[in-house]
Amino acid sequence: MIINKTNLIVFLVGVFIGLCTGFFTTKAIYNKPFEEKVERDTVTIHDTIPDYTPTPKDSATIKWVTKWLPAKHDTITQWETLTVHDSVAVQVPITSKHYGNEQYDAYISGFEPNLDSIFVYQKTEYITTTITKIKPPDKWDLNVVGGIDYNTASQKYTPYAGGEFMYKPNRFQVGVQGGVVKNDKVEPYVGVKAKYRIF
Question: 172-182 and 186-196 as β-strands: parallel, antiparallel, unpaired?
Answer without folding.
Answer: antiparallel
